[in-house]
Structure formats: structure tokens, C-alpha cells
User: Which sequence fits this backbone?
């Protein structure tokens, strides 16, 4: 079985947020980590590997320094890594990103593609499902449990206070929730091996069946009007009340502000 | 000369730091208070390969280097000195001598279990009358047929009751030289827990590293296979000294971690704690104290990393290890003491980590060669 896990390097929430003049994130200037949902997706793939002897290819699109998350994934137990990096691909929104990633995946064999549900920097939850559309394969989003049965996957999809049990034939794309599991740590030996492994680096020329009009900032239908760091305006109103009084008070306030 | 860490070492540090913060720090105070050996933590250390970092992959280890191992002990000790020494004693004092002096059969038999953490290791040299004077040994080993018979006792043994495999030193012969002086011939042995005649004596009640299992080991007609001799017969003293050279890098890393942990806590505290309407970090006395603590801690780190690299690349690294251990241990004691002082009355309470760190730091000036022994090693190499 072959599994592709898409991961994204995102700003570490412990560090500060910096923006470029065009409103996009200044990724080069921030501390970075593997997106939590993606890490859960990788862990799910690693568990499938332990059960069914799968081969895991981890893939990311980003600046050259995004190599770091791929090395981390290799140190956790992934087998191969592909970095898609090219100046022309910069500033991509979800459409251009999914087009790019699908263009790269067309070069690879796969039974399952796992992406995180969403990235903590954009919070769109669009890239995973869009990749499945580009590749014309089924998608199961919000996975909280994944099993393989013959040529199909059996996935629990989180839904409010319950879950849907869905079965889909492979190849399939699954988007993972961080609640799916507790990702493992790397191992020291895994880190040493990760830095000895070859990394595949692809640029625009390596993408299959994609149009330049759908790539990078120019190929992104989303235009960011303004982006700013969240500034706390005031400490808010603080009251000490009994639970019943407090509920009534909050209810009145929400009504007053036309929230309800 | 390049002082930047490689990317893989940086990544290893990130790993150790995250593990220490999430898995070790929350238990540090309890481990100290209850004097309970952190068995669950050790299981996790085993799971992620932290108990076989410098052991080659062919023997079930991680195949990483000494610097990575030192950084692991450093980061663990930053939050818990007990956990740091468990890893250090196991790796430097048990895995390393088997790797260096063991026969291929011994390596195949013991290292995969030790490096994977399925078994824990310990080292027994010290006796009531043989501390710095390691030649003062009384424990004896006599060859009877296919077995060595051990009699005697060892004290202050780290990982004492928790270990499964022990490197034990004993007198295997007494020879008389040309002038008629008697000389003890020491050999090293691998002894397994559960061997009849091998029992545990008193558990030490200690000032610091209170969660580490420090025990007396007692051997009464303890019979071990002839093949459990480690290295050549009569070469035990050299094996012990060489093993301790490596061990000192581990203890130096532990001391470094304690200093760094105390420094980090103090930097945070002096910015929060207000007196006379200002954070105490705004006073120049505090600033200068912190400057000295930070400088010395950084100097200690350079010596520790240099010693770790020397073990990787040089045949002899006694002096580098002695300098690293001497300096890092004294810096740990000084920095943790200053940390308590800067925390004021709060620092003297068990509510704050620096109190524990100061107690933990003291042992680094004593075990695996006191600071005085390190000065002997260093001066002997300098004054020739």
C-alpha cells in the first residue's frame, strides 16, 4: 500500500506573526512547525504502515526551508519526501495550492492521500478536498478513525456529537483531525537517518497537467484586502455573579448586541 | 572553527526539549518529593530510543553521536536531574563499556536489550573503603571451574535496584612485585539481576536526585559464568577509568542542564517579581548576577560539547571530560545557588524548582570523580 501525506509548515503560534506588504504571511521571518492536523494525519499513516506495511511519501509545498517539516516527518518514520518549491508558486491561495499539489501527486503512485483538515495559519479546510477534486478521487473529511478493509477504507467522520461511518474504495483522500491521535515523537536515530536520506525537490516544470494560469499569486482567485495581527482592544467586562444571574446577564448582553 | 550546531543536532535538541517539557517536567517535583524512581518516564525514554543514543544500529541503538546523547541528558536535566542521571548512568557506565570492551557475543547478548531500554544498566565500582581511591577495593572474584564467584559489596550505585545488567569490578588476583609489594589485580564483570547470591542492601536517602534508585549491592558467593568477564582479566582498573571518562561527559551534561534550568527559571522570575515598584530584573545587581550566570553557563556548554566531540573523534579524551565535568559541576552549584538567592524566600521553598535544582546540583561535584579528582587529572596533563 502506498500513502501520500501532505504536510504544511505553519508559523509556530508561540512566535510572533509577520506580514508581507501584500498581506500574505512573511513565512521566512517566523518560527515554524508542522501543522497539527497534518501531524495527526502523518501519525495515522504511520499506524497504517505498522499494520499493513505501507510506504509513506510525505509531500509539502513551500519555501526551501519547508524542508524542515519533511525531515521531521522522515524522522518520525516516513519513507520518502517531496518538496515542491519554486518562486512562481509563491503567494498561492487554496486553489493554486491544490492545483500545484495535485500536479505533483500525478507523478506518484498512491492508494491513500492524507491531508490535515486545515492549517492553523489559513483555517480554510479547502486544500484537501480540492486536491481530491483535481485528481477525481473520493474524499472523506474530518476523519477521527481510519481502517483499511481489502481495497477500501473505513473511516469515522466526526459530526457534531456523533460520527458517520463511511466506506470508500481506494484511491481515496482523507482529511485528518488533530483529535485523531497523539502523534509520536521523533527518535534520535530517525533524525540522523532523515538527514542522510535523499529529498526529491520539484519545481514548476515537474508538475503534471497544470496550467500556469492556476498557479502562484497570479493564479489565485483569492485576493487579500487587508491582514493584521489580532490586537486586544480592552480587558473586557468582568463580573462576579451566580451562575443563573450570569446566564441571564450574558443573554441580555447578547440580545442588546443583536447576536441572538 | 564553527560554533553552530548542525541541523540534525538542532532537530534533536527540539525533540529532547519537547519531550522534557511534556513528559518529564510535570513529574519532576513529585519524583523528588516521593523519592520514587520514574518508571513510566523510563518506559517512554525507552520507546523513543533515548536509552541507546550513541549505540550503533547493528546493536539495536540509535546510531547517533555522543553530542546528541549529551544534549539529551542536558535537556532532561534542565527539568529533572533525576531523569538525567538515569540516562547517563545507563548509557555511559553500562552500554559504553560493553560496546568498548565486550566480546561480539557479549555485545549481541546485552546491547540490543540495553539500547532499546528493555533492560536498564548500572555500574558498581565504589565501595565503603574505595571511593576516589578505587584501588581500595575489597570485593573479590575467584574462578572456580567455569564460574567466577563474587563476594563483597558496592555502595552508592545509581539505577541500583531498577537495573537489570551491572558492570561490577572486583579483585581477581593479588600479585607481588619485585620489591615484595602486593598489588591488587582488578577485573570487570557483567552481572545480571536475579543471579543467586546477588542482593540489594540499603537504599540511600539523598539530598538531591532523590528519584534515582541509589542502592548497596551485596554479593555473597554469587556465581556468574566465566564468559561474563568483561575485557581481559586484570584490566578492570583501566576499564573503570576509561568508562568514567565517558561518564563524566554525561554528568557534565547533567550539571549543564541543571544550570540552564535554574537560569531560565530565574530570568522569568526576575521579570515578574516586583519590589519597590519595579521588577527585580530592573535592578543592576540582578542584571549583573544574571549576566555572570549566563556567561558561565554558556562557557560550561562549550566545554561539554567539546568533550562530547572529543569522545567521538579522539582516542583519549580524559582531560576534556575532566575539564567539562569540573567546570560544569561548579557552575551548576554556583548558578543554582544564585538562582535560589534571586528567588529570595520563595526560592527556599519547594514550590519553586530552583530549590530542587540546587540540591540536585551538589552531587555533580561529587560522583563519577569529585572536583578534586578532576583537578588531579587536569593538572597531571598540564604539569609534566
Assistant:
Amino acid at each position: 500500500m502506498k500513502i501520500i501525506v501532505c504536510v504544511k509548515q505553519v508559523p509556530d503560534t508561540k512566535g510572533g506573526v509577520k506580514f508581507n506588504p501584500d498581506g500574505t504571511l512573511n513565512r521566512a521571518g517566523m518560527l515554524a512547525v508542522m501543522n497539527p492536523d497534518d501531524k495527526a494525519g502523518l501519525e495515522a499513516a504511520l499506524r497504517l504502515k505498522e499494520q499493513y506495511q505501507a510506504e509513506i511519501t510525505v509531500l509539502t509545498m513551500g519555501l526551501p526551508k519547508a524542508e524542515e517539516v519533511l525531515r521531521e516527518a522522515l524522522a518520525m518514520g516516513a519513507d520518502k519526501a517531496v518538496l515542491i518549491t519554486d518562486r512562481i508558486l509563491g503567494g498561492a491561495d487554496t486553489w493554486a495550492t491544490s492545483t500545484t499539489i495535485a500536479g505533483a501527486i500525478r507523478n506518484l503512485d498512491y492508494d491513500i492521500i492524507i491531508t490535515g483538515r486545515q492549517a492553523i495559519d489559513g483555517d480554510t479546510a479547502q486544500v484537501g478536498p480540492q486536491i481530491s477534486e483535481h485528481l477525481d478521487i473520493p474524499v472523506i473529511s474530518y476523519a477521527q478513525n481510519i481502517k483499511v478493509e481489502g481495497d477500501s477504507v473505513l473511516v469515522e467522520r466526526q459530526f457534531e456529537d456523533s460520527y458517520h461511518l463511511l466506506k470508500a474504495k481506494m484511491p481515496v483522500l482523507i482529511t485528518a483531525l488533530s483529535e485523531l491521535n497523539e502523534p509520536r515523537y521523533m527518535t534520535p536515530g530517525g533524525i540522523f537517518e532523515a538527514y542522510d536520506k535523499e529529498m526529491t525537490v520539484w519545481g514548476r516544470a515537474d508538475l503534471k497537467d497544470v496550467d500556469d494560469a492556476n498557479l502562484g499569486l497570479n493564479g489565485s482567485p483569492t485576493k487579500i484586502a487587508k491582514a493584521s495581527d489580532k490586537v486586544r482592544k480592552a480587558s473586557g467586562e468582568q463580573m462576579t455573579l451566580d451562575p443563573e444571574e450570569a446566564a441571564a446577564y450574558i443573554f441580555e448582553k447578547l440580545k442588546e448586541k443583536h447576536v441572538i | 572553527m564553527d560554533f553552530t550546531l548542525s541541523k540534525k543536532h538542532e532537530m534533536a535538541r527540539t525533540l529532547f526539549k519537547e519531550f522534557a517539557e511534556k513528559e518529564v517536567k510535570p513529574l519532576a517535583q513529585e519524583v523528588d518529593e516521593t523519592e520514587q524512581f520514574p518508571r513510566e518516564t523510563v518506559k517512554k525514554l525507552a520507546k523513543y530510543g533515548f536509552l541507546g543514543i550513541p549505540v550503533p544500529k547493528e546493536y539495536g541503538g540509535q546510531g547517533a553521536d555522543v553530542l546528541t546523547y549529551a544534549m539529551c541528558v542536558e535537556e532532561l536535566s534542565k527539568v529533572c536531574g533525576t531523569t538525567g542521571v538515569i540516562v547517563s548512568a545507563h548509557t555511559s557506565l553500562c552500554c559504553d563499556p560493553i560496546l568498548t570492551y565486550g566480546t561480539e557475543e557479549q555485545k549481541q547478548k546485552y546491547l540490543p536489550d540495553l539500547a532499546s531500554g528493555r533492560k536498564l544498566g548500572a555500574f558498581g565500582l565504589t565501595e565503603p573503603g574505595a571511593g576516589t581511591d578505587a584501588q581500595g577495593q575489597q570485593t573479590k572474584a575467584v574462578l572456580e571451574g567455569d564460574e567466577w564467584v563474587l563476594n563483597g559489596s558496592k555502595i552508592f550505585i545509581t539505577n541500583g535496584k531498577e537495573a537489570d545488567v551491572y558492570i561490577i569490578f572486583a579483585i581477581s588476583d593479588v600479585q607481588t612485585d619485585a620489591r615484595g609489594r602486593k598489588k591488587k589485580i582488578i577485573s570487570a564483570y557483567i552481572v545480571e539481576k536475579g543471579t543467586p547470591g546477588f542482593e540489594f542492601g540499603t537504599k540511600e536517602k539523598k539530598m538531591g536526585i532523590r528519584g534515582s534508585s541509589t542502592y548497596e549491592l551485596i554479593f555473597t558467593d554469587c556465581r556468574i559464568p566465566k564468559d561474563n568477564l568483561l575485557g581481559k582479566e586484570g584490566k578492570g582498573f583501566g576499564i573503570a577509568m576509561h568508562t568514567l571518562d565517558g561518564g563524566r561527559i554525561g554528568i557534565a551534561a547533567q550539571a549543564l542542564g541543571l544550570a540552564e534550568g535554574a537560569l531560565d527559571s530565574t530570568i522569568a522570575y526576575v521579570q515578574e517579581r516586583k519590589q519597590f515598584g519595579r521588577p527585580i530584573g530592573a535592578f543592576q545587581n540582578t542584571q549583573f548576577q544574571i549576566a555572570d550566570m549566563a556567561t558561565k553557563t554558556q562557557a560550561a556548554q562549550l566545554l561539554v560539547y567539546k568533550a562530547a566531540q572529543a569522545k567521538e573523534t579522539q582516542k583519549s579524551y580524559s582531560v576534556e571530560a575532566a575539564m567539562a565535568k569540573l567546570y560544569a559541576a561548579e557552575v551548576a552549584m554556583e548558578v543554582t545557588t544564585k538562582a535560589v538567592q534571586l528567588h529570595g524566600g520563595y526560592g527556599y521553598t519547594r514550590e519553586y524548582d530552583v530549590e530542587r535544582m540546587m540540591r540536585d546540583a551538589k552531587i555533580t561535584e561529587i560522583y563519577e570523580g569529585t572536583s578534586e579528582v578532576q583537578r588531579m587529572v587536569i593538572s597531571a596533563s598540564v604539569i609534566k
